[in-house]
Fold each of these.
Amino acid sequence: MTIKRGLHEFYAENPELADEILWGRKANKITRRGFVKGSGLAAMSAAVGAIIPFAHLMPGGLIPAAFAQSDDAFSIPGKSGLILLNDRPINAETPAHLLDHPVTPTSRLFVRNNGIPPSTWDIDPLEWKISIEGEACENPITITLGELQKRYKQHTLQLQIECGGNGRSEFNPPAKGNQWTTGAIGCPEWTGIRLRDILKDCGVSDNAVYVAYEAADMHLSGDPTKRPISRGVPVQKALEKESMIVWAMNGDPLPELHGFPVRMLCAGWPASVSGKWLTRILIRDRIHDGAKMNGQSYRVPCKPVAPGMSVADEDMCIIESMPVKSLITFPKSGIESSVTKLLQVRGHAWAGDNRVKKVHTSIDFGATWQKTKLKKAVNRLAWQHFTATMDFPEPGYYEIWVRATDDIGRAQPMLLPGWNPRGYLNNACHRIAVMITA
Ligand SMILES: Nc1nc2c(c(=O)[nH]1)N[C@H]1C(S)=C(S)[C@@H](COP(=O)(O)O)O[C@H]1N2
Ligand SMILES: [Mo]
């Protein structure tokens, strides 16, 4: 079950924190009498779509009624229909039927934050600085985003991003963390430069092992010496032509929640390697040891374990490519159709660094499978679309199951893959319910 928390509940508990998380860190700088001003106010104006003439009379912690009236569990500015899983920090996923577009609209992309995002909406993006350094960087540099955009060739690619914990809610015994169901995946179009163009310019020494990011978000404790997250990928992955530094999504500047003004993007791996609010790139001479690289974070047992077992840190291996997976995005689970009609079904499939070779559906709980029509990806590391036409033998309750197989012959497990302590990599078949009437 998805835990839905209301905006009201959130504000009732801690209005200042709610303001801070929803509107950015500076919203917390309220006047002594508790009124919202400054950048928090501007963000709020942007979200309600107008200036707020009596803002000076608006108490801090007040929920703009424009959002409070909605029945949605929570309205994050710029998002529509997402389900909130956690409010500190904000984590929200997208119901499967809202992921139907071939290219994921910005309003439908899940949000996963590990810390408190920086308030970047009022900065000059062109002046944002990124430094490239590290033990295996021959010529460390600091470059502004404006300069980077001028100096390197721009590319636009459609790339999937999926949280390593997507599907966690199904594991038993349960794993701690955001209880993602199926919605921590999306495949928008990103614009930026190839990471390798700038890395090569800075000089990657022969002893380079990993390329990592550091970012401008704040640890949840507020302790400036701690980082919420700093991860990376092996050099070979960083040098692939699809690994990017991006500043635009679907043709617009990155939204604040997704890393404005600039982020890293290494698709096909857990999205935790794609650092938002990018400030530093480190070319390391060892496996990166930043926040959430060690211990049990983004790691799974190197060898399968029985459900519920505790696994020593040294027996856990870093997650690399994500597994093969698929999602039915049309129809919405729970619909009714008639036995006299053919039902059109569609969705997407993806397979980490690999390609999806075939997608099958079943209406008899996996006893028999029918091949769907599968399209090629628009580019490597973008999801692929499938369609199927279904005929039901008689009225009643059915489930449609979907199962993808990648180009090295690995298929999705029907119910659950191997259990792991943190609940990563659940690529079980997606299934929806349909009621077939006479
Ligand atoms: N700086 C920074 N980058 C980050 C994170 C974060 O908390 N801080 N979360 C990571 C994780 S775990 C995921 S799943 C993706 C989510 O990207 P999105 O919020 O744009 O969908 O961002 C990654 N990059
Ligand atoms: Mo994630």
Amino acid sequence: MSNFWSPLAASLVPYVPGEQPKDKSYIKLNTNENPYPPSPKVLEAIAEAANSDLRLYPDPTCGALVQEAARYYGLSPKQTFVGNGSDEILAFAFAAFFDPAKPVLFADITYSFYKVYAKMYGLQPKLIPLNEEFDIPLEQFEGEHGGIIIPNPNAPTAKLLPLGDIVTLLERNLDQVVIIDEAYIDFGGESAVKLIDRYPNLLVVQTLSKSRSLAGLRVGFAFGSEELIQGLDRIKNSFNSYTMDRLALPGAVAALQDEDYFKETTEKVIRTRDRVMDQLLGMGFIATDSKANFVFISHPAIAAEQLFIQLREKGVLVRYFASPRIDNYLRVSIGTDEEMDTFIGALKEVIAEQT
Ligand SMILES: *Cc1c(COP(=O)(O)O)cnc(C)c1O
């Protein structure tokens, strides 16, 4: 607490990102980073852009990248927004579309940043409890409210809603903005982007952080009707006109252009996930059906916090949330096959020591 803080700063409950330790080298399975490097074409484009033009401001409209992202999905540039990571876009979207006079609806178990944004903008979250299987009770996302946000697949549960369910949700809430946060959609889901022409209330948010191995570049996208994109632009240009720098812009364009590399690496992650899932189930773990680049698991006999601590001692970092309903689960990012073999080995040791 400081006397210098505004009432707003004093009232915030900031998000706590997964740790990025420097003390020793861990197998990092705690922040859903991609284990494979970005496309070599991305690195070439960034190297080429690292020149004396850095003295100049970047393009405030991010024109080249907006065009490339629109092309990628067969949309118009007017239906496309880009930002400094999808977290930034989500923050803009909360400010642009959610009405503080009415509750904003999201699941009780979901991306924990949503609560932080709600607080930041004086919104009233109404948490919709997931059922026992961590499924989203769609019928509860209706009534008087000021907007909806759902990650698909959900985090940290990894569960996917089929596109038909998204349509149902949109049909029932035509007067409010529905944000679908598709940070993990490329690992086995179907994007709601194709619904944008039909639903002017739909905003789809994506990121290059996970499936394109570019968490360090900070690039996100939003796709929606022209009026929604204009709403985001209004917030962005009241905040920071130059959200994307001169290295990120060409790097992101190159990432979207290298479809072969993208397919190859996401397929590898999916194959590893499915193999690891079989192993975990064989070891007696309870797991959700993951369509993301992480698994969400619980051991019937050993507390998740214990597993988390012991794995850490063995040099494997996973994510543990000391939150109601999920405090006996671990979220484990999918690494390379070799990393996952080490993880499974360490896990077997911990279980043997504990039982
Ligand atoms: C990782 C993640 C993001 C943030 O992605 P950035 O583009 O790196 O900011 C957004 N939403 C969910 C659900 C995520 O897991």
